[in-house]
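Thread amino acids onto this structure.
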């Protein structure tokens, strides 16, 4: 099943653009002044040729192995009209709790994100029964309605966003709700460290080799 109607690589780097185009991808060069992927996506979404697209999805370059379920889940949260912003998460073990490179999310009964953090959330206090709950590992994909995307990029950075280094805390703090879809798949590791990059390169080489 098709997830999207168009796929575009957005970058401010000529080298990246050349590699993408040589691989057959459509690529658009953007401004080099953007401070986040969301700002870069907004620049592309404003182009006249994309004016009729009501849901825009951002798959980030440091999350190259995101699964189809995560992308589709985030997109459907927005395209269904449930929330103006959407993302995805996957149930994980408590082993991720203390890893600051893995972002966790807590959501409400209506699937609304309550908070994202690099810290352990929810925090198991006073011998809490860990079997009663399960941490959710955030998957770095975002979907936006056109209006919500413009609202997001118009907001100034805020303190909690800068403290956690998590751009999604900007709209959340401003009261723009984010829906969180649950993707029943093992989250693909993002690339935040040199070790992550080595593993990603090995996985890509294996994929190309058909292993």
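Threaded sequence (211 positions):
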């Amino acid at each position: 099943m098709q997830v999207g109607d168009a796929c575009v690589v957005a970058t401010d780097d000529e080298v990246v653009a050349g590699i993408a185009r040589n691989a057959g991808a459509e690529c658009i060069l953007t401004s080099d002044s953007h401070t986040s992927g969301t700002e870069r996506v907004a620049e592309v979404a404003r182009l006249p040729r994309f004016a009729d697209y009501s849901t825009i999805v951002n798959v980030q370059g440091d999350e190259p192995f995101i699964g189809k379920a995560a992308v589709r889940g985030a997109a459907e949260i927005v395209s269904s009209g449930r929330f103006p912003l959407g993302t995805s998460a996957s149930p994980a073990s408590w082993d991720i709790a203390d890893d600051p490179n893995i972002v966790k999310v807590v959501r409400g009964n209506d699937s609304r994100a309550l908070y994202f953090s690099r810290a352990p959330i929810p925090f198991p206090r006073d011998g809490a029964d860990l079997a009663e709950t399960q941490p959710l590992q955030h998957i770095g994909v975002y979907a936006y309605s056109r209006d919500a995307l413009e609202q997001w990029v118009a907001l100034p950075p805020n303190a909690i966003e800068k403290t956690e280094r998590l751009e999604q805390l900007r709209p959340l703090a401003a009261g723009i709700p984010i829906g969180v879809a649950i993707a029943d798949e093992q989250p693909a590791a993002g690339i935040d460290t040199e070790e992550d990059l080595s593993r990603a390169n090995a996985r890509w080489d294996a994929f190309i080799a058909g292993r």
